[in-house]
UniProtKB/TrEMBL annotation:
Record-stated family: Belongs to the cation transport ATPase (P-type) (TC 3.A.3) family. Type IB subfamily.
Record protein name field: Heavy metal translocating P-type ATPase
Full-sequence range covered: 296 to 621 of 680
Biased composition (Polar residues): 161-178
Domain of life: Bacteria
Stretches the record annotates as Disordered: 161-186
Subcellular location: Cell membrane
Segments traversing the membrane: 1-20
């Protein structure tokens, strides 16, 4: 027979939309000191919209959007989908692009009309060793300041024949800043994308604090300025809470390890493929909403809805089942 405690817990959790995969995870949730949230899709809606486009000196904004949409046309990333959709609504189909290559956690590149272009965030610019021209600084600062993600369109030069015909050989060129034809990469323009904070996220965080969670943390591949703006919006407290920004997908679990090394018990909340190792490493892994299969597999607890307030529900369930046990 199933012990009474477990059957009660199971009935309560099912009603609350909490799927318990690992009963020990529920038990540990009661003692968690830090809750680490993935930003995109967990604390924010994960549905981006284009909020602004600016061209560098002599480059038209429409041209920037047109080329960026072409380069992004083969990418599944939510930022890419937003650019393509926005361009489609305003101008119809994007130009034809070929020889796509993704730079994981940084951006993508492709050939349009015989020329090579890349689209990506600050990490891409660092990798290429280029900076946005000064005339774009004002817009970029204003966009980042209000929490928008900023992507840049970079001209890499003409696509050489060997690059077009041999994708893998081209990665040698692409890992540094020089273009196939030897010219220097140049930022042609920038695009701002906004992703709304989930209205329930602020409440979810306040609830966890009220339940005695010491530290709230957020992790993202996004730029530091964007992450800090979102954190401020969510009521993060400086010096106590924490923001891990510009983290490459493969390094997300290192943030969990970092918190654990400081003696904290960590619950990680996420939905994406790249959250899976972090969910597995955490003391409690919580997959949220219509998360990816990998995320669900790696988590001890799965929330049926995408509402981050469910995390506080898991903690309450943990306390309630403990009381019933003693
Ligand atoms: P998150 O951790 O927020 O889910 P990702 O690791 O998916 O973010 O992406 C991190 C950053 O890499 C993005 O903020 C963006 O700057 C850049 N990036 C990733 N994919 C693309 C893409 N298809 N086009 C442009 N930029 C991209
Ligand atoms: Mg994500």
């Amino acid at each position: 027979a199933i012990p009474l405690v477990i059957s009660i817990t199971t009935a309560v959790s099912a009603k609350a939309g909490i799927l318990v995969k690992d009963r020990l995870a529920i038990e540990r949730m009661r003692t968690v000191d830090a809750v680490l949230f993935d930003k995109t899709g967990t604390l924010t809606k994960g549905e981006h919209t284009v909020a602004g486009v600016s061209g560098a000196e002599g480059v038209d904004g429409d041209e920037v959007l047109h080329l960026a949409a072409a380069v992004e046309s083969d990418s599944e990333h939510p930022l890419a989908r937003a650019i393509v959709a926005h361009h489609g609504r305003a101008h119809g189909e994007a130009a034809r692009a070929s020889d796509f290559r993704s730079r994981t956690g940084k951006g993508v590149e492709a050939t349009v009309d015989g020329k090579r272009y890349a689209v990506g965030g600050p990490a891409l610019l660092r990798e290429l060793g280029v900076e946005a021209p000064p005339e774009l600084d004002g817009d970029i600062d204003a966009w980042s300041g209000r929490g928008a993600t900023v992507l840049h369109l970079v001209a890499l030069g003409s696509a050489s024949n060997d690059r077009a015909s041999n994708g893998s050989a081209s990665s040698d060129h692409a890992s540094n800043g020089s273009a196939p034809d030897g010219s220097e990469p140049r930022v042609l323009g920038s695009i701002a994308l906004e992703d709304e904070v989930r209205p329930e996220a602020r409440q979810a965080i306040a609830d966890l604090r009220a339940q005695g969670v010491q530290k709230i943390a957020m992790i993202t591949g996004d730029a530091r300025a964007v992450a800090e703006a979102v954190a401020a919006d969510l009521g993060f407290v400086e010096g106590r809470d924490e923001v891990f920004a510009e983290v490459l997908p493969a390094d997300k679990d290192q943030a969990v390890a970092d918190l654990q090394r400081r003696g904290l018990r960590v619950a990680m909340v996420g939905d994406g493929v790249n959250d899976a190792p972090a969910l597995a490493r955490a003391d409690v892994g919580i997959a949220i909403g219509a998360g990816t299969d990998v995320a669900i597999e790696s988590a001890g607890v799965v929330l049926a809805s995408s509402d981050p307030r469910g995390v506080g529900g898991v903690r309450r369930l943990s306390k309630a089942s403990y009381r019933k046990m003693i």
